[in-house]
Design goal:
Keywords: Cytoplasm, DNA-binding, Phosphoprotein, Transcription, Transcription regulation, Two-component regulatory system. With about 525 residues, the protein is an alpha/beta fold. It is built from 23 helices and ten strands.
Length: about 525
């Protein structure tokens, strides 16, 4: 605690400064000033918690000083001293919320008791402020999620009894009670080898950035991710495809969201037809969802409005085409197999199915057939579980029909290569890359696949065929071998060992090591050093 003593009498200043054991009552720093002007200058840098101040002084009275300093620190504890019985001064002291008033000549015990009580009050006030700050910080952190829940409610059940009372809090939920409203939906795609965050962390980062972005605050749009992981914004007002209907605002919004998302995220936006009232928000959302799905058939560079939607029909899997694909691959007719994929894409583009998951599933079936054939031909070795997990994971992150087609074609190209091309030379390059990079943050199977220019699925299949173990198992063994080497040196801390084998969580490292080595890192070190 800091104390500032202000008095024009030198004797009083010295008496108060030197003859009270301030440290015994929690005062760590004491400064003095001879008048209000000097006190104001000193208080700016000292920032006292308690001010012990004479009322009548030349140049600037104690009241004038306190009035000026209250603007800087309205909660500072004020204790006034005076040798005069002046009602006007007393009124001013009351208005300034002075803690107490002590008559001169001062009694040191009385001053000490008053300051001690002021210290207690100041501490309680600081504690209260700290608790309020923590509550506010907690509220600020939760605000994006509160808004997300409101978005989900508005696009599904806007007439829910909880919606209107909540929307009355404009500072929290931004939107007016009455329409019109426009819903915007955006899909986000990225390569995990370029963005290492968990998808949930990425969504959290984006929502938090949206909640503080100045231009988006001006638009008073409510943002959240829906159950399909689309970024949904409910905007007050009407926005259409013509510039006279507010298209420029939507283009500005798209640019802001892409800046927030970052360069490695492919963000594609669809805009629904404006809703005249809150009850129409679900329909605006459905149209925004469809417009966003429409982006899958193009470059995604510009926003698509719902008035651009044309006839669309479901893509139905043709199992005869799948059988033909298998037959062509079994006899080495890769070009004929690729032609089936190209024709399938032409059919898909004609249908314009807006159920993108259904569309992706048809390509998944083509890819699964190709993989099964590769296994039968001895080109790959992979378990069904791993096969389907990797294939679907890769397909699901693809942002467009063109890229989806290219992904399947590249897999067929891999099958067309001779066994030597994807054989020992490629495997040597894969193992060399693993040993060079396994300890790095962001090292993933996808990063290996990108380096050797194979799909993740085909990489895993080829590696298992040649090594008789999965690539994941090989990476784990490599990390364990390096960890054992490092643990043999007692100067290297276990947390450092974990970091140097590419594991940032020491608890996970202990579990991981024990599962593979049969003992904890500490136990292994004890045995190794004996």
């Amino acid at each position: 605690m800091k104390l500032l003593i202000v008095d024009d009498e030198r004797r009083t200043r010295e008496l108060l400064h030197n003859y009270i054991p301030w440290d015994a009552i929690g005062i760590e720093e004491v400064e003095t000033a001879r008048n209000g002007l000097q006190a104001l200058e000193l208080a700016t840098t000292l920032q006292p918690d308690i001010i012990l101040c004479d009322i009548r002084m030349p140049k600037m009275s104690g009241i004038e000083f306190a009035q000026a300093y209250r603007k800087t620190d309205p909660d500072c504890q004020l204790i006034f001293l005076s040798g005069f019985s002046d009602k006007e001064y007393l009124k001013s002291a009351i208005q300034l919320k002075a803690f107490t008033y002590i008559d001169k000549p001062v009694n040191l015990n009385e001053v000490r008791d008053a300051v001690e009580q002021a210290v207690w009050l100041r501490r309680e006030e600081l504690k209260r402020k700290e608790e309020e700050l923590k509550l506010q910080e907690g509220f600020d952190r939760s605000l994006p999620y509160l808004r997300q829940e409101m978005v989900r409610r508005l696009i599904s059940d806007p007439d829910s009894p909880n919606v209107v009372p909540a929307l009355k809090s404009r500072e929290t939920f931004l939107l007016p009670l009455e329409g019109p409203f426009t819903v915007v939906a955006s899909s986000l795609y990225w390569n995990p080898s370029e963005l290492l965050e968990d998808p949930g962390i990425t969504q959290q980062r984006i929502l938090e950035a949206i909640s503080v972005q100045p231009r988006l605050q001006e638009l008073r749009s409510l943002a959240g991710f829906d159950s399909n992981n689309l970024l949904v914004l409910v905007m007050p007002g009407t926005f259409g495809s013509a510039y006279s209907d507010g298209r420029a605002v939507i283009e500005e919004l798209l640019a802001e969201l892409r800046t927030i998302a970052g360069p490695v995220i492919d963000l594609r936006m669809g805009i629904g037809t404006p809703a005249s009232s809150r009850g129409g928000i679900p329909q605006s959302y459905r149209l925004a969802y469809q417009a966003c799905a429409y982006q899958y058939y193009g470059s995604g560079s510009k926003p698509i409005f719902s008035d651009a939607l044309r006839n669309h029909a479901p893509v139905m899997m043709n199992w005869e085409e799948v059988r033909l694909l298998r037959d062509h691959l079994r006899v080495g007719q890769v070009d004929d197999a690729k032609r089936i994929v190209l024709e399938w894409t032409a059919y898909a583009r004609k249908q314009m199915d807006l159920d993108i998951m259904r569309l992706k599933d048809t390509y998944f079936q083509l890819l699964a057939a190709a993989m099964e054939t590769a296994v039968q031909l001895g080109l790959a070795e992979i378990s069904e579980d791993t096969e389907r997990r990797y294939m679907w994971k890769e397909i699901d992150r693809i942002p467009s029909l063109d890229a989806l087609e290219q992904y399947v074609l590249s897999f067929l190209d891999s099958m067309a290569k001779s066994d030597d091309e994807v054989g020992s030379g490629k495997i040597r390059e894969i193992t060399r890359y693993i040993h060079a990079h396994f300890h790095e943050r962001g090292f993933t199977i996808r990063s290996i696949a990108d380096h050797v220019q194979l799909s993740e699925t085909y990489l895993c299949a080829c590696f298992k065929k040649h090594h008789k173990q999965t690539i994941k198992e090989y990476i784990m063994d490599t990390r364990i071998d390096k960890a054992k080497e490092l643990l043999s040196d007692p100067k290297v801390k276990i947390i450092e060992v974990a970091m140097r084998v590419g594991i940032s969580d020491s608890n996970y490292f202990t579990i991981f090591f024990k599962r593979k080595a049969g003992c904890t890192p500490s136990e292994y070190r004890e045995r190794a050093i004996r």
